[in-house]
User: Fold Type II secretion system F family protein from Dyella jejuensis.
Amino acid sequence: MATVTAARSNTRNQAAQRAQVTQMPTYDWVALDKRGKRMKGSMQSKNATLVKAELRRQGMNPQNVKERSKPLFGGSGKSVKPRDVAIFSRQIATMMASGVPMVQAFDIIADGQRNPRFKTMLIDVKQGIEGGSSLHEALNLYPVQFDELYRNLVRAGESAGVLDTVLDTVATYKERMESIKSKIKKALFYPVMVLVVAMLVCMIMLLFVVPVFAKTFQDAGAALPAPTQVVVSASQFMQSYWWVVIGAVVVGVVGLVQGKRRSEKFAHFLDRVMLRFPVIGNILRNSAIARFSRTLGVTFHAGVPLVEALDSVAGATGSVVYSDAIKLMRDDVAVGHQLQLAMRQTGLFPNMVVQMTAIGEESGALDSMLFKVAEFYEEEVNNSVDTLSTLLEPLIMVILGTLVGGMVVSLYLPIFKLAGAVAG
Assistant:
């Protein structure tokens, strides 16, 4: 155990040293080749003299070598997104399948990168490979962009000698996961934005429209109906304590985010509440099952042992409730229980999913069955999002009509009352 820990520590130290070595400035250069043709490019080096020496070694005459200025904001460029990692995985898988050596493939991909941060990452990983590390060890330099699941799949591919196939599978997997995430964001973004717009409209009316009517009612000296009095009182409160309302909203949002991030119990409670929401809860549940099935299918197909695969899958579901359940399943499988039995004990997986898993275990085709489950629930997510959009359209009209229309009607009630008194 001590030997394993020491080896891991040594690997991390070597990775850190390589990361420090590769944090060199980038130089943009202009040079003339042997034909006198003007060439330009960029190169990482310790100083401009070494860049010129390298250009001369390549048979070029340096004309101008200048260190690339760093951005004023953002330092190392835009962030690396999962889609970038998916594209990289597809590119390197294609090149390796075509017989391109891994180091050369990294050079080609890095040269074509427009994201400076990702380019630096690829160069760091490439230099780690050149230093004798395997790909999955070199990827330890960037555990956020290349998570444990990604590295485990790469390690399994390297062990089985099918790294190009595994990387292609990983690319497809990441593309599908990003598609599901975008569907979830679309499903949640629409109602949230409607509520935000409704709140903004109400605030504008309470701050700027209602006071005009309230002044008119006060000058008329008429008794206000109950709905109008409520709106006028709300307007007066907003004018006096608008900062309290905005502060309460900000504190509430920040409190929810930080509470979910810092407290496992609160995150579990919030996630369970969301899973019980009509329609949206169904989307989140189907999404978690689709992610679980797709991720476990990919890892198991790549040759990762089931217990280790479940350990990697737990964080890929996007749900704290399902993540905790998968960890319990991992413990059950580790002591000899079948996967389908462990799934049944959680009470979170539909009977169809459990039955198809049981069939997959008995027939020795667990990965194929999991892929079929994933495809079914991915389609369910798509259909549920479309259904939600259809249901929200009339619901939005009702919400806006109730909030804004109710305020407008309450403001005109005293005018109708005065008009009736005058007519009488």
